Amino acid sequence: MAFVLPARGVVLGVASLVLKEGATIESALAVVRAAVDAGVLAIDTARAYATVDDDAAGERIAQAARTQRPDIPIITKAGHFRLGRAAWDVDGSAERVRADALRSREVLGAPPSLLLLHRADRVDDLDASVRELAALRDEGVVEAIGLSNASVELLDRARAITTLDAVENRFAFGFDTASEYRYCVQAGIPFLAYAPFGGPKSTPLATHVPRVAAVAMRRGISVHRSVLAAMFEAMPGAWPVIGSTRVESVLDSIAAADLVVDEELRQAFADDLRSRGVGL
Q: Does Ligase count among this protein's keywords (predicted)?
């Protein structure tokens, strides 16, 4: 089954809702509920988004979205997992991928909409892992498959084995190149862009896209909403995966789908990316 999302909109990633210091289940669920009510396109989680006491904390939070919208897509990832309070490890072997997929299906109560190999860049035998992903899709354990954190070279290797339904890589405005995005567009593969604002340890977004920030300030609109709206128009086939931890911020980002992009904002976005050596 192909992985399909509407043309404009955001995906909510729950990593920070689980892993951020001081995170609580109550605040996480409040953000998820608000996001679903506002029309978020999908929920993004992973086996690695776990607490010390619950290996499936992130998937349980994602599953809560289905109490409001039973058909909302849930994306999860295999092969990366928590070992302890501040330790994670990677095992992308076929055996681990299958075990993670079965555990995800158990927690979610249904096949994940999309299962990604979480750290494709750190897998010892990518070919074996991809063959296992394809088998899981064929068996109906998962609906669709893909890679996360994968270079163009790794994507070529994987696609020589099977069809990829989606790719999820970091695309932080002002930091990352668009090479994997362009590859996916040419191949017709949905591209999920995580950490578009730079991630929790990044400098303020306005410093990465100053021209967009100036336009947003004049118009009384947040730079986050403005840059996402510009992205929707400039990067068809890409969907930002936002990591909001507050209801107000997730609603602001979702509202970007309804923001009209005029020539001034369009040019500001293009100039900001070009100044960082990123061409679309």
A: no
Q: For Cα atoms 100, 171, 45, give the angle at the middle one, nearest 5 degrees.
A: 25
Question: Total domain count for the chain?
Answer: 1
Q: If we measure between CA atoms, which residue out of 158, 162, 183 comes closest to residue 235?
A: 183
- Is 204 a domain residue? no
- The answer to whether 243 touches 207, Cβ cutoff 8 Å, is no
Q: pLDDT 10s digit of each residue in the chain, 280 long?
A: 689 999 999 999 999 999 998 899 999 999 999 999 999 999 999 999 999 889 999 999 999 999 999 999 999 999 988 887 777 788 999 999 999 999 999 999 999 999 999 999 999 999 999 999 999 999 999 999 999 999 999 999 999 999 999 999 999 997 888 999 999 999 999 999 999 999 888 899 999 999 999 999 999 999 999 999 999 999 999 999 999 999 999 999 999 999 999 999 999 999 999 998 887 7
Residue 117 near residue 125, CB atoms below 8 Å: no
Quote the pTM value.
Answer: 0.95
Per the structure, the complete domain to which residue 29 belongs is given by 11-199+238-245
Q: Is 240 helix (H, G, I), strand (E, B) or coil?
A: strand
Distance CA 117, CA 174 (A): 26
What DSSP assignment string belongs to 50-104? --SS-TTHHHHHHHHGGGT-TT--EEEEESEEEEETTEEEE---HHHHHHHHHHH
The CATH code of the domain that includes 175 is 3.20.20.100
- For tokens 């932080």, name the residue: 172
